[in-house]
Amino acid sequence: MARLEIHNLSVGVGSRRILSDIELSIGEGRVFVLFGPNGSGKSTLLKAIMGISGYDILSGEIIFEDRVINGLSVDERARLGISMMFQHPPGVRGVKLSQVARILCEDEEKINKYVQLLNLGYLFDRDLNVDFSGGEMKRVELLQIILMQPKLILLDEPESGVDIENISIMGRVLDEYLRESGASCFVITHTGYIIEYIEATDGCLMLDGNLYCVGNPHKLFETIRDYGYEKCKECTVRHAE
Amino acid sequence: MRSEAQKNILDSLPKEDLLSSGVDLSEKGRAATFVQVDERPSLFRSMFQGIELIPTEEALNRYPQYKKFFGMAFTAVGEDFPRDTQGGFFLVIKKGAKVTLPVQVCLFLKKKSFSQKVHNIILVEEGAQAYVINGCASDKAATDAFHLGISEYIVMRNGYLNFTMIHSWNDSMVVRPKSIAVVEEGGTFVSNYVSLKPVKEVVMYPTCVLKGRKARASFSSIILGHKGCLQDVGSRVILAAPDTSAEIVSRTVSMGGKIIARGHLYAKTPGVRAHLECQGLIVSEQGTIHAIPELQTDYRDVDLSHEAAIGKISKEEIEYLASRGIEEKVARSLIIRGFMDTDILGLPDELREQIEELKERLTEQAM
Q1: What is the chain B residue with the closest CA to A76?
Q2: What CATH number did the domain enclosing A198 receive?
Q3: Burial (Cβ within 10 Å: 0-12, 13-18, ≥19) of residue A226
Q4: Does B351 have pLDDT greater than 70?
């Protein structure tokens, strides 16, 4: 059984069609890396999987563990085991990180462990994401994700705004979780830093709302680094999945 | 020890209503207790030497020296007050007494269609310090009842009064508190108002006169407006002596009720500074919030400011919390509770926890 399967998925935002006929399968314990230039539709795909409002499914199916989740609300999808790292999480004034952490996890020891590991002690009793720096937000996102114990993690540029030291901290925490839980991960990365820490198993390229070149993520990343997305667009080898 | 008859009175009132108005039934964490049911002061005792807490009529009869305080605060602002009151409490914190445990006062309504009219006086003598928690509650059976509370607070030189009023009425009650505080040189008056349960109508505009140099006042209110309720609530500070300062902060949430959040800072002398902040959150389409902040000065050399903002719960925040598996209802309740931030209240720790619990329970119920 695949953890996530996507068939024939088209997604629109407003009156614009962003994704067309996407086919994708992510197996249990797989780390699937999504490459692609800005504006190609990567974030849209993640948000559509999470069920974020404004990302309308025009056709096709999103199947999580053999269940079509197209009609489920965001919180229902989260409770099934899907967890997304927001690229720009909103500040939630009046709601403290500690409150949310305790809703997500009853094990105080475990909360403490990850708060320490991710160096978040000083933010624990602050309002969630209010006046946090980019790097702090990413660590706070990861803390919440880990405490949710998801089966599928959606990461939208987890390293953006994070300094090298903290990328390594986040990478190690994420790697440990993936290994221990057998969770799958769908990750968007521009820099590739994050896949130095977690073992990427699959990769593909998104161009203009379509997926191409499903295969070895490291090879794909090397090619993109050497030739750039411009060459990918011109490339005749790329084949639609 | 508490007499059996008095004990029975606390036991005879509905526990839930007493608790939600902040009453500590065990009295263990309290310095003194006063309970009035309908027209009758039913229980009053002080567990602390520096405190006198007795019914107002009794105080005026027994202590001629206190007579001059009756009506004094109203005279200070040139206002009259109703004389047809029955009962109310007279609290004196004796000179220099520092009382850290709160004094608790409960005004309770039990009879249907009854008009409870009380006259309360708090006298904080020179250098004294006290925390007072005033819970107002009513039985569910006390439908269409009315409460008029005349209150006078006198804070003498370098005195400190921290007064928390918790309204926990029922939804057919009409309530008219009229409170005036007068603060002398170096004195501080901290007023906290918490109203979380449905009430038919509350109209109040408590006023504080800072009449001595370096006197200070702080008003903070947390108001939850339920469907069908009208809460016209303001705070006014008259800065009448140099180097006085004041702050008024309110957080109002309308879940369908009509809330008028007033505030008035009036500089009657130069060299004063004060700030007013009204923040409102509209949760329901039927709700209305009307914020009316007013600044007034007769002089140029003053520092008065205000900020007011009314908004709604952002969909983005709800969806973000939903992505953590938190149901929309729970997410909304979390955000509303967070907005009604008890940190704005100048509460002692034990009270803060109690009010936090109350807020959690009553917001859940209202969702």
Answers
A1: B325
A2: 3.40.50.300
A3: exposed
A4: yes
pTM for this prediction: 0.85
Mutate to test the interface with A, among B312, B315, B323, B344 (most CBs of A within 10 A): B323
Q: How many domains does chain A have?
A: 1
Mean of the pLDDT values across residues A53-66?
97
Per domain, the residue ranges of chain B are 4-313, 314-367
Query: What is the per-residue pLDDT across A138-147, written as a single tens digit (0 to 9) for each?
Result: 999 999 999 9
The pLDDT tens digits for A91-129 are 999 999 999 999 999 999 999 999 999 999 999 999 999
Among all residues of chain B, which has the CA nearest to that of A104?
Answer: B324
* Contact check, Cβ <8 Å, A96/B338: yes
- What's the CA gap between B35 and B113, in Å, rounded? 20
Residue B364 burial (CB count, 10 A):
12
Measured between CB atoms, does B321 come within 8 Å of chain A? yes
Contacts A94 to B, Cβ<8 Å: 334-335, 337-341
User: Could you list the residue range(s) of the whole structural domain that residue A217 is in?
Assistant: 4-86+150-234
pLDDT digits (tens, 9 = 90+) for B214-223: 999 999 999 9
Chains A, B: CB contacts under 8 A, how many?
65
Mean pLDDT of chain B: 93
Q: Which of A196, A172, A200, A173 is nearest to A185 (CA)?
A: A200
DSSP type of residue B98: B
Least CB–CB distance from A53: residue in B314, B319, B339:
B319
A16 forms beta bridges with: A13
